[in-house]
Design goal:
globular, alpha/beta
C-alpha cells in the first residue's frame, strides 16, 4: 500500500495472531477503518497462533470469566468453520482424566451447571468402556465436555485474515519498532514506525504481538512476559487405533486424536525453559520424546512404541499469573496491550476480540483479571 494511503485509520492492529485477527474482525464489524500490521504473516510458523491444533473447552474451576468466554466463542468458531472451505472446528469432545477427589473438577462442574454448559462425570468403569485404548485406575474419573473439541489453529487465523482482506481491511507488512511513552504527545501516540522506517498513523493502536509483546511495548511488558519453550510430538497410528477418543488431558500431558491424518499428538503443558522466539533452536529433544513415550506407556500402553512421525517446538507466552493481559498502555491512552494467552488463550479469540472492540470504542473499561498492574515479574501461575 502506498505511503499516502497508510494514513487515516481509526485503528491499527499490530500482530495477526488469534487475538489480533479477531480484534481486527470485531473492530471492522463495528464500522471502524482498520489496518493490520504483521511482520511475517498471519499465524506463521514462529508465532504462538501457528501450528495445527488447539483445545477448546469450558472447565476452568471458579475462574468463570474463561468459562463464559470459551462458551461464547465456541459459536463463532463453529460459524467460521461453516464458512471456511475446510473444517476449523472438530467436535471431538474434551476429556479430562483426573484422580478423585479433585477440587478443580468439582468447581468446574458447579460453574458449568450454573451456565447450562453440558458436561458429564464419568467413573472409571465408564471410561474403560468408552475409551478402551486408555488405561484407567480404579481411583480415577473423567470430566467430559461433549461440546468441546479441536480448533485448527493456523487455518482458523488465516481463514479469518482472508475474510478481512476480502472486506477491504488493509494488511501492511513490517515489524513495528518499540513503542515508548516518550513518543506520545499529551498521553497519546500519533503513529507507529516500522523498523524499515515507514510511519503508520491511526487514532488508536492495538498491540497483539504474542511473544514479541514485551519488545513492542517495553514500558508496559518488560520483565512481565514469560516466553517458554514447549515441545510437541506426533505419533503415527493405524486408522481406528484410538477408537472414539476425544481431545484429552491428563495433566501435565494433553493431546489430540489424529486430526486429518496428522498423527496422535502428545504435549507437555509444564512450562519449559525461557526462550527467544527469534533465535531458539526449534528441534525437539530426545528427552522430550522419551518423556512423552513414558507417559504413553502409563496411559495409552498400546501406543507407546508407535513411530514418531513429527516433532516441533513452539512457545508459550504468559503473564506471571497465567491470566490474559487486555489493558490500556500505562503511559499512552490510545494504545491497548493484548496478549499472554499461551496454553489456554486461543479458544477465547472471538471473545477477546469483542472485548477489545468495546474498549477501543469506549463501551467498556479494562477489567480484572486482565490489568497490567496485577502482573508481577516472577511466575506464579493461577490459571489451569
Amino acid at each position: 500500500m502506498p505511503a499516502a494511503q497508510r494514513k487515516g485509520f481509526d485503528v491499527v492492529v499490530i500482530g495477526a495472531g488469534v487475538f489480533g485477527i479477531w480484534a481486527a474482525f470485531k473492530l471492522h464489524m463495528a464500522g471502524l477503518r482498520v489496518a493490520v500490521v504483521e511482520a511475517v504473516g498471519a499465524a506463521h510458523s514462529g508465532a504462538s497462533s501457528g501450528g495445527e491444533s488447539r483445545v477448546t473447552r469450558c472447565g476452568y474451576g471458579e475462574k468463570d470469566i474463561y468459562s463464559e468466554w470459551a462458551w461464547r466463542s465456541l459459536g463463532e468458531w463453529q460459524a467460521l468453520s461453516a464458512r471456511a472451505g475446510l473444517p476449523i472446528f472438530h467436535p471431538t469432545g474434551v476429556l479430562w482424566v483426573h484422580a478423585q477427589p479433585n477440587e478443580l473438577v468439582q468447581s468446574s462442574a458447579r460453574v458449568l451447571s450454573r451456565m447450562n454448559i453440558p458436561f458429564s462425570l464419568l467413573p472409571a468403569p465408564e471410561l474403560r468402556r468408552r475409551f478402551p485404548v486408555m488405561r484407567v485406575g480404579s481411583e480415577e474419573a473423567g470430566f467430559f465436555e461433549p461440546a468441546g473439541g479441536a480448533l485448527m489453529a493456523r487455518r482458523a487465523v488465516q481463514s479469518l485474515a482472508a475474510e478481512l482482506r476480502a472486506k477491504g481491511v488493509a494488511f501492511l507488512s513490517g515489524a513495528v519498532a518499540p513503542i515508548r511513552q516518550e513518543q506520545g504527545r499529551q498521553g497519546a501516540l500519533a503513529a507507529v514506525t516500522t523498523k524499515g522506517g515507514e510511519r503508520i498513523e491511526a487514532e488508536q493502536f492495538v498491540c497483539a504481538c504474542g511473544p514479541w509483546l514485551d519488545r513492542v511495548c517495553p514500558d508496559a511488558m518488560a520483565k512481565r512476559l514469560f516466553v517458554t519453550r514447549q515441545e510437541v510430538f506426533y505419533f503415527s497410528l493405524e486408522d481406528g487405533a484410538t477408537g472414539g477418543l476425544p481431545v484429552w488431558a491428563d495433566l501435565p500431558f494433553y493431546g489430540f486424536p489424529s486430526l486429518e491424518g496428522r498423527g496422535f499428538k502428545v504435549a507437555n503443558d509444564t512450562h519449559g525453559p525461557q526462550m527467544d522466539p527469534d533465535t531458539a533452536d526449534r528441534r525437539a529433544s530426545t528427552a522430550g520424546e522419551l518423556a512423552a513415550r513414558d507417559f504413553l506407556a502409563r496411559r495409552f500402553p498400546s501406543l507407546a512404541k508407535a513411530p514418531l512421525s513429527q516433532a516441533e517446538v513452539c512457545q508459550y507466552e504468559n503473564s506471571s499469573d497465567g491470566h490474559l493481559v487486555i489493558d490500556r498502555h500505562p503511559g499512552l491512552d490510545n494504545v491497548w496491550v493484548v496478549g499472554c494467552g499461551s496454553g489456554h488463550g486461543f479458544k477465547h479469540g472471538p471473545a477477546v476480540g469483542s472485548h477489545v472492540a468495546e474498549l477501543v470504542t469506549g463501551k467498556a473499561k479494562p477489567r480484572e483479571p486482565f490489568l497490567i498492574a496485577t502482573k508481577q515479574r516472577q511466575q506464579d501461575r493461577a490459571v489451569q
